[in-house]
Structure formats: C-alpha cells, structure tokens
Specification:
Elements (H helix, E strand, L loop, with lengths): L1 E7 L3 H17 L5 E4 L4 H7 L5 H9 L2 E6 L14 H11 L4 E7 L12 H4 L3 E7 L11 E5 L2 E5 L6 H16 L4 E6 L5 H14 L6 E6 H10 L6 E4 L1 H15 L6 E5 L5 E5 L16 H13 L4 H16 L2 E2 L9 E2 L2 H12 L1
Parallel strand pairs: 1-2, 1-3, 3-12, 5-10, 8-9, 8-10, 13-14
Antiparallel strand pairs: 4-5, 4-11, 6-7, 11-12
Helix pairs in contact: 1-10, 1-12, 6-7, 8-9, 10-11, 11-12
Bound molecules: 3-isopropylmalic acid and magnesium ion.
Keywords: Amino-acid biosynthesis, Branched-chain amino acid biosynthesis, Cytoplasm, Leucine biosynthesis, Magnesium, Manganese, Metal-binding, NAD, Oxidoreductase
Pathway: Amino-acid biosynthesis; L-leucine biosynthesis; L-leucine from 3-methyl-2-oxobutanoate: step 3/4
Cofactor: Mg(2+); Mn(2+)
Length: about 350
C-alpha cells in the first residue's frame, strides 16, 4: 500500500501532517502503509523550477494512492501558464486520467449550528457531487489569449466527447445504485451544444439503469435548488466547471469548506485524495486551519483505494467523537464550543481513534 504524500503549499503541509498522524496510528497497528513525500506546486517551483517535477509525477504514477494537500500562493499568480502551482494539480489529474471526482457533502449532526442555513434545512444532509475532472473548459482546445485585429481576445473551449460523458455518467449511475438510487445530471443544455450532447448521452446510459431515478437540471436552477431544498439530492453528476462551482456552494450547507474531503479516481483503483479547500495563504503557518477535510480524505483513500472499510469508518467515527466533545477549529467555532488549533485537532482525532 504505497502512498505518495504531496503536501504542497499554504495550509497543505499543516493539514496533511494531521492526516499523517492518523495514518501513523494505523501503521503502528500493523497496516502495511508505505508513505513517500514529494514536492508539488509553488514549493516545487521554488526548489526545481517546475511545479510538477518529473520525480513527483513518477512517484504519483508508481503509488497506489496519492494524498494531496493544497497548492498555490500569491507570489506565483503571475508566473507563465504551465509553471503556476495549480497547473501541477491539473496535469496530475489529467496524466493519471482521474476523471471521476467524488465530493461527498455530509452534514455532521454535531455541527448543527455551523451552516449559515437554518439547521433544520440541512440536518441529515448526505449528498454526493460527482464532478467530471479531465475535460470541459479546463482542458478544451483552442485556448489562449490572442490578438485579433488589434483587440485582445481570451479563448477557452467547452468540449466533451461522448466517451468522456458516458464513462462519468456510468460512475454516476453506479454510485446512485449504492445509495438512494437518485441521480441528478446538471448541465446547460438549453444554451451549449457540448451540454446538449451531455444530456443526450446521460439519457442513453440511463437505459441500463432503470432502477435509478434520473433527473436533469440546468446549472442555474441546480445552484438555486441546492440552497432551497438540498436534501432532495442524492447524487449530482456534472461537468468539470459546474462541479467546481457547485461543490464550493455545497460546502456552505455543512458549515465550512474545511470539512469537505474528496477522491479522484480513474479506471483503476489508484486515486488522488485531497481536501476540497485550497492553500489559503492568508492563514498558512498559523495553526488555525481545519485539518478535518484532510483527515476525512485519508479515510476516503482507505475505503476507495485500499478496501479498508473498517479503518475508514473508524476515522470518521473519531472525527465525530471529537466534534461531539465540542472541539472546533476557527472556521466552525460556535458559542459553547472549544476552539483548538490545527495540530491539536489532529491530536484529538488520534486520541479518539483508540
Ligand atoms: C478544486 C480547485 C481547483 C479546480 C483549482 C485549484 C485548480 O478549485 O479542486 O476545486 O479548479 O479544480
Ligand atoms: Mg474548486
């Protein structure tokens, strides 16, 4: 069980350290976890001149799973494209063909008051956003900034072929089948041809899944419904850009993006696991970031890449126990709870494991 550990930049290293503390407990108990660290993002650029050094890509390819923190930072924003930290993550997703991005949005009852929405509106919420991760505007060609007749033009291309749509749709139906058997496909088929094809292909795939109830929503309407009636959703399947936006929106249903883990998988079991949040340079190094999304990402890794369901359940139970005891990082603190730092939160989860 070889894990490539890529902490990255900003709060990445401090939250990944907490996930590693948790994995260390399992390793000491005998789970054959082999962890190897490598540089990615801005720190890799500083050290090697490239945000995704060959050694890091090679390690990621050879590993059974990748645990990723975050990447980026103000100082890198004006670098040429291809050298920016975010490009490393996009290249990794694309090179490893990790096309299916699972972003579970689960309201912990212990966090009842953390969402800006009324508690009754979100209690018991359990939805899965399945975001296509290797196509769409993120990768479509042509792209660039060109000059046409003396005017600068920015160009990106929304592009999906039917095979890309079919494979993510299948994952959507399979996922719904293991849950409450409801799939909502989100597109913009009323305006965009690529999304018209999306809807058509999802309908074709649906014929093989008569036991799953399929609904289509336009993305604007889906964004509204996610706030109006979030509990109506089971699995949402959508493209790369819409999934990026909707998953940040959905984080507010549970109170903080600091609580959301994710898994990105391809055709094999190898996956990349990362918190949905970014590098948050404004709070980096201050021991205030929430490490729970990283810890919960490690749990997803154990479950989805290693079939270690009992260990994954145990980590999730430990997180809930710590929350039930009233401990909170700054992003989810409420009156009557006890604020703790990043590292202490990691220690509390470790203590709750045993
Ligand atoms: C995400 C992030 C990334 C994305 C960025 C950092 C490239 O926002 O994982 O949601 O847009 O996919
Ligand atoms: Mg995002």
């Amino acid at each position: 069980m070889k894990i490539a550990v890529l902490p990255g930049d900003g709060i990445g290293p401090e939250v990944i350290d907490q996930a590693m503390k948790v994995l260390d407990v399992l390793r000491r108990e005998g789970m054959p976890l082999e962890c190897e660290r490598a540089l990615i993002g801005g720190c890799a650029f500083d050290a090697t001149g490239h945000p995704l050094p060959d050694a890091t890509l090679a390690l990621a390819r050879s590993a059974d799973a990748i645990l990723f923190g975050a990447e980026g930072g103000f100082q890198y924003e004006s670098l040429p494209r291809g050298l920016r930290p975010g490009d490393a993550l996009l290249t990794l997703r694309r090179e490893l063909d990790l096309f299916a991005n699972f972003r579970p949005v689960v309201a912990f009852p212990e966090l009842g008051g953390a969402s800006p929405l009324k508690a009754a509106h979100v209690d018991g919420l359990d939805l899965m956003i399945l975001r296509e991760l290797t196509g769409d505007l993120y990768f479509g060609e042509p792209r660039g900034i060109v000059v046409e007749a003396g005017v600068r033009v920015g160009i990106n291309t929304m592009r999906y072929d039917e095979n890309e749509i079919r494979r993510i749709a299948k994952v959507g139906f399979e996922t719904a089948r293991k849950r409450r058997r409801r799939l909502c496909s989100v597109d913009k088929a009323n305006v965009l041809e690529s999304m018209e094809l999306w809807r058509e292909v999802v309908d074709e795939v649906a014929r093989d899944y008569p036991d799953v109830e399929l609904e289509h929503l336009y993305v604007d309407s889906a964004a509204m419904s996610l706030l109006r009636a979030p509990k109506q959703f089971d699995v949402i399947v959508t493209g790369n850009l819409f999934g990026d936006i909707l998953s940040d929106e959905a984080s507010m249903l549970v109170g903080s993006i600091g609580m959301l883990p994710s898994a990105s998988l391809g055709a094999e079991r190898r996956g990349l696991y990362e918190p949905v949040h970014g590098c948050a340079p404004d709070i980096a190094g201050r021991d205030i970031a929430n490490p729970l999304a990283s810890i919960l990402s490690a749990a997803m890794m154990l479950r989805m890449s290693f079939d270690e369901h009992a260990a994954a359940d145990r980590i999730e139970r430990a997180v809930r126990r710590v929350l039930a005891s009233g401990y909170r990082t700054a992003d989810i603190v409420e009156p009557g709870t006890r604020r703790v730092g990043t590292s202490q939160m990691g220690d509390l989860v470790v203590a709750a494991l045993s």
